[in-house]
Design goal:
- With about 270 residues, the chain is mainly alpha-helical.
- The chain has a domain of about 110 residues: ARM repeat domains (Serine Threonine Protein Phosphatase 5, Tetratricopeptide repeat), CATH 1.25.40.
- Helices cover about 60% and strands about 0% of the residues.
- Helix 8 packs antiparallel against helix 9.
- The longest helix is centred in the first third of the chain and has 17 residues.
- It is globular, with a radius of gyration of 20 Å.
- The termini are far apart.
- The mean pLDDT is about 95.
Length: about 270
Amino acid sequence: MVGHLLGRRGAARIALIPPEVLEALNKGLVPTVNLNEFLALDLPRLARNVAGHIGLDPAHDRIADTLAMLGAFRPVKRHEHVARALYDLAEVRPDRDSIAHALATHTSDVARSWASQWIAFSGMTLPAKLASTRRFAADPHFGVREMAWMAVRDEVARSVDEAVTLLQPWARDSDANIRRFASEATRPRGVWCAQVEALKAEPWRGLPLIEPLRADCSRYVQNSVANWLNDAAKTQPEWVDALCRRWSRESRAAETAYIVRRACRSLS
């Protein structure tokens, strides 16, 4: 039984993670609660356990070959390779939909993150990918939500105007996680992901997404919008300055003031 582990506070250092917690994490029985737990995972062991949970062969050569080469890659890239191996094995199966569902609803946040990455491997159109991504964008775990927008980042970068149009309803959604996705997926620069050259050069093309969020009640969303504008300020500082001045004139909300203050932190 692992129920007593679900409300735990994450250890301040990897060395302080209790063996019982680490064992449960590697078995895929509990989600991670902080970055230290994520970094402490025995990824090959977790991958084999999750494969067995969703009906794939943990000893399959495709999995074994992938796990053997993980050390050559950075931590985030390792997860992409694991996700790809599981995807390739499931794709040829007649029960692939049930396998995908089992992965997408797995107890382990890392397993659900792999499921979100499957969307990037598919040949779906951008509207279909966004529709499939929505469940992960709204996931209760922060790690899954980060993987969700990264899964569609390349398509967003290639089809900026289409993405902005498709994400406008997301920017007005009642779920703060969905609103934040609309902002985060289109950040001109972002972190550990492809840069959106079109929005670096012409950030005003993303205004239909961030304008509705200028006084958002969620700090999670506010930080994303501020980071969006801070990204844009690296290439179009005058536009960001003018936009923030306009927002400050038009909105006296404390939320807007917070966004503007953080958005302008790189401006002289």
